[in-house]
Amino acid sequence: MRPGLVCHYLAVMHNLKTDNRIYDFLAGPQRYKQSLGTGDVNMYWIALQKPRLMFTVERLLKRLKHMIRRDDGRSGI
Description:
Elements (H helix, E strand, L loop, with lengths): L2 H15 L13 H6 L16 H20 L5
């Protein structure tokens, strides 16, 4: 028996006893989540930040990194 599955089982049982209708297996497409779960729900994330120069620079650097990685396999360089 796997410790992770036992923990999920105990958590599900606890949620049932406390009348919680939903138990979240968290992220990841592991097979046990699909077999133990009754369905899936899309989860959306949103990040809110104050308009600060530091955050603007961070966002631009992330875009640049993404562009470089995307172009990495296409260029003959």
